[in-house]
Amino acid sequence: MTTSGSADLVIVANRLPVDRVRDAEGNPAWRRSPGGLVSALEPVLRRNDGAWIGWPGGDEAGLEPFTEDGLRLVPVALSAQEIEEFYEGFSNGTLWPLYHDLVAKPEFHREWWDAYVAVNQRFAMAAAETAAKNATVWVQDYQLQLVPQMLRELRPDLKIGFYLHIPFPPTELFQQLPWRRQILEGLLGADLIGFQLAGGAANFVRLVRQRVGHRTHRDTIELPDGRLVRARNYPISIDAAAYEELARSEGVAKRAVEIRAQLGDPETVFLGVDRLDYTKGIRARLRAYGELIEEGVIDVGKSVFVQVATPSRERVEQYRLLRDEIDRLVGRLNGDLARIGRPAVSYLHSSYPKEEMAALYRAADVMVVTPYRDGMNLVAKEYVACRFDDDGALVLSEFAGAAHELRQAWQVNPYDLNGMKATLVEASRADPKERTRRMRALRKQVLENDVAHWADSFLTDLAGDVKPKR
Ligand code: F6P
């Protein structure tokens, strides 16, 4: 057993909710990173004398625990080699593509795995030293799947939860992983394992039965020592009311009008907003849109497609290739199809503050979210939360986790280019009454199931009030 700390609730996530930046004098400082997770957990952390453990980004060593705006933050340092092997390598070159239906080919390297084990051990140690006796520790996401078991060995007194933000793959794909058993056993260190969808939880339970040989009953796994582990779905969400409030603000309203004017006041604005990631289906949606212009179905003089692609994981080979591909495709579409002052695609390789995003959502007639596979996709929910006018059409991939809740969206199969083209046209030409009918239903769903509801349901179940699911 390690000596315990004083926090009654500990969040362990790959990243801290702050970024390392330089202030006006060039001195290093911290800036809050605007994440949904932190806004959901902040009130719970404050109530429970909580702490957040995570990597501050970069390879700066020797950072001590500190308090920022009343939040206790514990940095875990990664060396340059660990960033390469643990973060870019095993997390984003092996697990990310494997868990997203092999949209890209996962690479299996033994030295990446060794780094994954070593870094998970460091996070587990930090959690063990931070948590008070009998505290609750909630571990987040695919980068830290070994932490629950490592932590249980160090601190058997703790309540441990784990939540996977990305999809849990079908059993056939997961079995490719040379370290499949270690990952399953790592997760089984938790008392409660949360997934986005019921299907992911069921895949996990089946794998545990088949590969590890434990007895299972519905969502419950019985370990040889009698301990019970539960695997359930808790679809994540956003702070919907805060998005709506932002969208209603005067500044955002003005900016939305300005955006449309800057785009040349088109009749229809299509919008895509994604991290620049190969799982998001950006290429397919732009190709579909380009073909519609080529065929004369969409008039480039009357419509524009705004695609925001936030830079992401830029040192990983697959992401570099994707960036070049999208650059070329946008160049070709605009070269072939644009007219002076009328681009086919307005492409923005950049990230923007929330206010600008809310204005874009308000300005967009058709929001196009077409990932090949996505754990949830919060952009779809943000769009809905911002449309307090009950207008706007959401085109949503059936392979996004959000498709299970957002049934009233225009759903598409992103692999079916013709189907996607037909749906883009249908959504953009839908009768206003039909758009409103659908948007009202979507808004009810998103506003009633916000991120606070997500965090509360998970933490309540973890605290021991788990009721059997019917
Ligand atoms: O969706 C999984 C996730 O890890 C998010 O938690 C995160 O915001 C996003 O991907 C980007 O991740 P990274 O930390 O690699 O920039």
Describe this structure in words.
- The protein has 470 residues and is an alpha/beta fold.
- It folds into 2 domains: 7-236 and 453-465, Rossmann fold (3-Layer(aba) Sandwich); 240-448, Rossmann fold, CATH 3.40.50.
- Helix content is 44%, strand content 20%.
- It contains 16 helices and 18 strands.
- Helix 8 (240-248) crosses helix 13 (378-386) and helix 9 (250-262) packs across helix 12.
- Residues 14-15, 141, 165-166, 312-313, 375 line the site of 6-O-phosphono-beta-D-fructofuranose.
- This is Trehalose-6-phosphate synthase.
- Belongs to the glycosyltransferase 20 family.
Distance between the termini: 38 Å
Average pLDDT value?
A: 95
Number of helices: 16
What do we call the CATH topology of the largest domain? Rossmann fold
Q: Helicity level, as a percent range?
A: 40-55%
Bound molecules: 6-O-phosphono-beta-D-fructofuranose
Looking at CATH, the homologous superfamily of the largest domain is Glycogen Phosphorylase B
